[in-house]
Amino acid sequence: MDVREVAQAPRRRWALVALLALLGALAGAGWSLASPDRYRTTTTLIFSLQGGSSVNDLAQGGTYTRDLLASYSRLVDLPVVLSPVVEQLDLGVTPTALARQVDVTTPSDTSLLQIAVTDGSPERAVAVADAVAAQLTTTVAGLSPDEVGGETVSVDVTVVEPAQVPDAPTAPPLPVLAAAGAVAGLVLGVALLVLLALLVTPVADRSTARRLTGAPVLAEVPRGGRVGRHPAPTRSEPRAPRAEAVRVLRTNLLALQREHDVRTVVVTSPTAGGGSTTTALALAAAAAELSQRVLLVDADLRSPDAARRLGLEGTPGLADVVRGRVGLEEAVQAWGSPGLDVLPAGTPHDHPAELLGAPRTAEVLAHLRQTYDLVVLDAPALLAVTDAAALAARCDGALLVVDARSSRQRLVVDAAERLGLAGASLLGVVLGRVTGTGGPRGATDERAGAADVAVP
Predict the structure, then answer these.
(1) Residue of 137, 90, 149, 91 whose CA lies nearest to 113
(2) Of 110, 132, 161, at which residue does a domain stop?
(3) Which InterPro entries does this entry report, sorted A to Z (predicted)?
(4) Pairing mode, if any, of strands 102-105 and 112-119?
């Protein structure tokens, strides 16, 4: 999915974004109404060193005081200061709990110390701030050194800005919290839609399919025609839109066959249930109508289904031929008229990936390529197991069957990458369950793109 499509996602689902913004505003308003008012007040103290008489003494005293200020500020949060305050005001809390209501700051390059207190009562906030300031003054007087550099000195603490009773709570007012909630809901809605667009958006149309895979769309099967009652729609319903879509696919594949000598084609999909078996059956039957020698191979050794759909025996088949149990002539069965040869999956094998990757499989495929004009192999889903990618690497290429309504874009990209990593050529895409195509596109629509596909 490109940047333009990602940016359009919130526009297509603006109602959801608006709903989340409204919910955010309501949540902010609710938080404001439910939260108790908090009041904050601040008192400011200045620390000075008394004792020196010269200018140099005063300068050194100011530096010495600022050095001590960092230590004095740490005292504010400690029980040595807060315990007497709790007892004096009868606050009914622990010094640790009170420390969470007190904030201390020391402005840089000054001898000032600011004590801020937050409380549910404005009057109590002032009382606590004054009491903390007074107790800190007492504590500092008891801890400060009496002599510095041989001279008698003292640290004086003076309140330069007493605490004032706050006239309004410190929490943001309701409109501010509501606006902040609306913005948060808006951001969440946009982020959610962008995430959905990246992860779960279906392919939907031919331009998207081509951009995701880098391969031409060889045919579009209209919605409602992906699963047929008959495995060969060009024979059972020759005028139906899905039959015409199969003819378009056949025409484009034959163009590849003439231009690049494509004879062995793996038909697969990103995930199970994508319609690859239906497509393989229909394509093989349609190609056989042109008096070509066509072989349909059920190469899904894990869940074979092609032979069952055609009403043929499932054994012997490909697995038996590769293992040397039977000859190819014994395993191949004829179906329909004009004739279509079918090689079933054969006897189940415990390790189908290893069997398909065996050198004997390559020999069988090479022999089939020399024997038939077109060999169509129905393979398992690409992202489920490695069988399809391994087979495609040994054939002239693969057709990727993509469901326009349910195949996720990320999975289609992963499937195309899986073929590329295996060294297989992606000949094209068959886009299924397409809505609003106005009927299958003509064969010439994709032939120029098909001719540009790199094939081995």
Answers:
(1) 137
(2) 161
(3) AAA_dom, Bact_polysacc_biosynth/exp, P-loop_NTPase, Wzc-like_C
(4) antiparallel
Q: Is residue 167 part of a domain?
A: no
State which H helix or E strand residue 296 sits in: strand 294-298
Q: 443 and 345, same structural domain?
A: yes
φ, ψ at 410 (rounded to 5°): -60, -35
Locate tokens 């869940």: which residue?
Answer: 303
Domain range spanning residue 18?
A: 3-35+172-198
Q: pLDDT tens, 292-325?
A: 899 999 999 999 999 999 999 999 999 999 999 9
Q: How far apart are CA 318 and CA 326, in angstroms?
A: 9
303: number of CA atoms within 13 Å, CB side? 9
Q: Is residue 456 part of a domain?
A: no
> Contact 380/272 with Cβ under 8 angstroms?
yes
For the stretch 103-115, pLDDT in tens is: 999 888 788 999 9
Q: Residue type at 357?
A: G
CB-side exposure of 24: number of CA atoms within 13 Å?
18
Q: Phi, psi (5° rounding) for residue 110?
A: -135, 170
Number of domains in the chain: 3
Q: In this predicted model, what pLDDT tens digit does every residue of 61-80 receive, in sequence order?
A: 556 667 778 788 888 989 99
Q: How far apart are CA 312 and CA 334, in angstroms?
A: 9
Work out the burial of residue 301: count CB atoms within 10 Å of its CB; fewer than 13 is exposed, 13-18 middle, 19 or more buried: buried
E strand or H helix at 115, and its extent?
strand 112-119
Mean pLDDT value of segment 220-236? 70
CB 24 within 8 A of CB 186: yes
